[in-house]
Structure formats: C-alpha cells, structure tokens
Write a structure and sequence with these properties.
122 residues; alpha+beta; four-stranded antiparallel β-sheet; 1 helix; 9 strands
Length: 122
C-alpha cells in the first residue's frame, strides 16, 4: 500500500513539474529559408538571463555567460544575440549552399529554468 501511495505521489509531482515547463515563453521551433536572414524571438519577462547557448544534436556548441549587458554566441551557421535583462533573442542564420536541412538548438537559461528552441534551415 505504501508503494502505491509513493508512486501516486511521485506521478502527481512529476505532472505538476511538466505542466510548469512553458519554455520560458520562447517558441519551441524557428525555421529559416536557405537564403538565411534574421528573426527575433521573444520569451516571457525575466529579471535576468544567465546563459545563452547554441548546440548541435551531439551537444557540441558555444555559449555566452552574463558577464556584461549583452551576450553574443555563434556556432556553425547561426548567431544568437541577447541583452542580459531582456526577453528577446535575435537569431541570424547564414545562407545555406546545400539543399540539405540543418538544425541547431538555442538554449536560454534564467538561473532557474531553461528554454530550448530548435532552429532549422532548409
């Protein structure tokens, strides 16, 4: 009986945590054309941003820490720019010379929660 209670309690707690994940208000995906370009994505108002990061599927990439009033990260074909006390990220994609789809992931960490935005270019 005690095991059933603990499993039930754990299920409720995990569901509450899962419901709270709103990706910090940022979109879960952004698409760029082959010609590249720039887009601004917005999240919810946050008092402070600790880290801005771009990673590929294997977890390789670059990150910037909030040691000044803005952060700029470039990895492969994508650049992300963000002011430390802002809720907007400017994404800049270089033009693609290939017909293959390419994908990177942008992460914003506010010291408590993290958002993931999948950025693709076709």
């Amino acid at each position: 009986m005690r095991k059933i209670f603990l499993v039930g309690l754990l299920s409720v707690l995990l569901s509450l945590v899962a419901c709270d994940n709103d990706n910090l208000g940022f979109p879960s995906s952004v698409n760029f054309p082959r010609s590249g370009g720039s887009k601004i994505i917005s999240g919810k108002d946050m008092p402070y941003i600790a880290t801005l990061e771009i990673l590929d599927y294997d977890g390789d990439g670059n990150c910037a820490y909030a040691d000044s009033d803005s952060m700029i990260v470039t990895y492969k074909w994508l650049t992300a720019k963000m002011r430390t006390y802002d809720n907007k990220v400017e994404l800049i994609a270089e033009p693609s010379n290939s017909s293959e789809k390419r994908t990177l992931y942008v992460y914003v960490y506010d010291g408590k929660d993290i958002s993931e935005t999948k950025v693709t270019q076709k």
